[in-house]
Amino acid sequence: MNHPHPTERARRRGWLGLSMAALLVFAPSFALAAPSSTLLKFWNASDETNTATIDHSAWQNLLTAYLSSHPSGVNRFDYAALKASAEDRAKLADYLAHLQAHDPRAYARAEQKPYWINFYNALTVQVVVNAYPVDSIRDIHESWIPLSGPWDDIHATVASQNLTLNNIEHGILRPIWRDNRIHYAVNCASYGCPNQSPTVFTAANTEELLDASARAYVNHPRGVDFVDDDFLVISSIYDWYVEDFGGNQTSVLAHLIQYAEAGLAARLKDFAGSVDYEYDWSLNQPSYSPE
Q1: Which residues contact 13 (CB under 8 A, 6 or more apart)?
Q2: What are the helix (H) ranges across the chain?
Q3: Percent of the chain whose predicted confidence (pLDDT) is above 70
Q4: What is the dihedral of CA 234, 235, 239, 242, to 10 degrees?
Q5: 3-state class percentages of the chain: helix first, strand second, coil last, to nearest 5
Q6: What confidence tens digit (pLDDT) does each residue in 164-194 have?
Q7: Domain boundary assignment for the chain
Q8: Which residues face 234 on adjacent strands?
Q9: CA distance 242 to 259
Q10: Burial zone of 17 (CB within 10 Å; 0-12 exposed, 13-18 middle, 19+ buried)
Q11: Per the confidence metrics, is the pTM higher than 0.85?
Q12: Which stretch of DSSP H or E encloses residue 154?
């Protein structure tokens, strides 16, 4: 999930953070814009008569082995352990080769959606593992631009088309399905990101997993966090991709209320204060401990 360079204000929790003015001084002069949802027409095809499925069991085995829950509520992926296992790195490469051997356009839309979500997540893990150790996925890039991340680098080829992570998310998943829950499914290997699902997506479970992922994120402090009754901090995802959540702060709050648990929903309905945004780009590895 490629996101722009953060310029969010420090949280008002007594942190010894930089002021907004300082952030503007120390941040790079460029600002990475959030990619727009722009359809890659090549991928806008399907065969709804095809009832075949694509096997994701290899990815499930890797998730079972290396993804774990954590008391913080943020699932952690053990990139170091996977890096140390030549056998399992080969299994990941084989799985990605398996996906690249399929032309998803030959499958029904219901099969394509989990195909692209799993592809994005597995490919992201491979990108991180290949570069590991790193503190953040944003440190991985071929571009001269620092902190630009790997999202515009070519990492795969399907149906003779070179693909970047941005292609998958912003050229295929977002414009074809127009489902804002996609943001809860694709994982950018960061602590601030919605959880990597411990269960692979399939045509049978995608809707259930998307709803569960949305609820889990909205009801976790990195998604929605009241600092006090007049100040709310929410994930920068709702700022960067506000167009996917209705286009304004009111529609974003309505979306959050939809997935919030009863107590949080009631508080959001009555909220009339100021909103700020935050995102933690630290790698979602077991050793990370947020301040």
Answers
A1: 227
A2: 20-26, 57-66, 79-84, 86-100, 109-131, 165-166, 174-177, 206-218, 237-240, 249-259, 262-269
A3: 89
A4: -90
A5: 45, 10, 45
A6: 999 999 999 999 999 999 999 999 999 999 9
A7: 20-278
A8: 224, 277
A9: 16
A10: middle
A11: yes
A12: strand 154-158
